[in-house]
Structure of Peroxidase:
Amino acid sequence: MDRFNSLIAVLSLLLSVCVFPFFASAQLRQNYYANVCPNVETIVRNAVAQKIQQTFVTVPATIRLFFHDCFVQGCDASVIIASSGTNTAEKDHPDNLSLAGDGFDTVIKAKAAVDANPSCRNKVSCADILAMATRDVIAMSGGPSYAVELGRLDGLSSTASSVNGKLPQATFNLDQLNALFGANGLTQTDMIALSAAHTVGFSHCDKFSNRIYNFSRQNPVDPTLNRDYAAQLQTMCPTNVDPRTAVGFDPNTPNTFDNVYFQNLQQGKGLLTSDQVLFTDPRSKSTVDTWAGNSPAFLAAFVRAITKMGRIGIKTGGNGNIRQDCGLLPDIRKSDLETAIAYQMQSANFGRKSEIKSDLSSGPNKAYEWQEDVKQNSSMT
Ligand code: HEM
């Protein structure tokens, strides 16, 4: 196959991953590791339980990490990759800087526990470990326990630029929220259910300070905020507050994953604009009202929504692998590079020699992509 055809093949693959991320779910299934690592779910659960005993922050930190992973390049643990000398990774994009370290630590500890078992070593992806850990922290904080689908591979790249425009902002209105979740194959109902993850965890003051100080000319305080709650927020977040100060999302049951989130919205106690709008916009209000009074209905909707979220843009086959270190893209062995260079030289690509050299010097991300490209070409000829 010539380069043009292989380019078309790569482009169609990219198109299918980008445009129809939710169709990529066919390969996920429960008990995916039954043959290679039958105890994987118990191993992960024990590691997560131990981590929660150290700090409850594990719960919100892990849930949010999974969300930010899935919405950027799919659920492929690309958010966990550390930046390198030549590459700024997803985790260093401004929208990800407030991800709490305990989420990353949960995955790293669970991965170490899995890999301590000889038959499981290097068989379970970091992306699946994050999906399992998320299920576990939700169940261990009073939320639903659901069967988690597995079979995701880890992504081969992670760039800060890929985060642009992919994550919702605290100031979003309903149309903006629906547009972003819709682009990931999620409905308004899914979006409302998933927003209830704000039943646990914290927000830094800067994410909502506009609502309590300079909302509009007539109303310095957002009129959709409960007045007493707004006054409490002003006390906790004075105008020149330390930027590290954070406030709990749920003032009533901060450490329980429950439908009190929706009851708070009914009382004007949604912390972010994007939370409160779910109650103030008539198009989403009835769902909030229903789930505020019906915990089982909310929990069932949440399980459906997070299962759908876990299918976004999954990597299978050649577009993923199993990372040994969840925070590092695999290094390419020198011998692989030499073989790849030799191949490139032979195959009418002489003119690209200098480009190849510069690719190799531009870090593991680029080199890995390039190596995959070469592999694909070699198998096609
Ligand atoms: C609907 C649109 C959403 C917006 C605008 C939004 C925005 C935010 C913001 C601004 C914070 C506070 C970050 C900080 O200051 O540290 C936050 C925290 C959090 N978000 Fe969201 N989020 C949304 C949806 C979700 C979803 C779908 C999930 C998970 C399913 C989620 C899970 C969390 C959790 C658990 C925290 C607390 C993190 C912690 O305490 O470490 N969020 N979110």
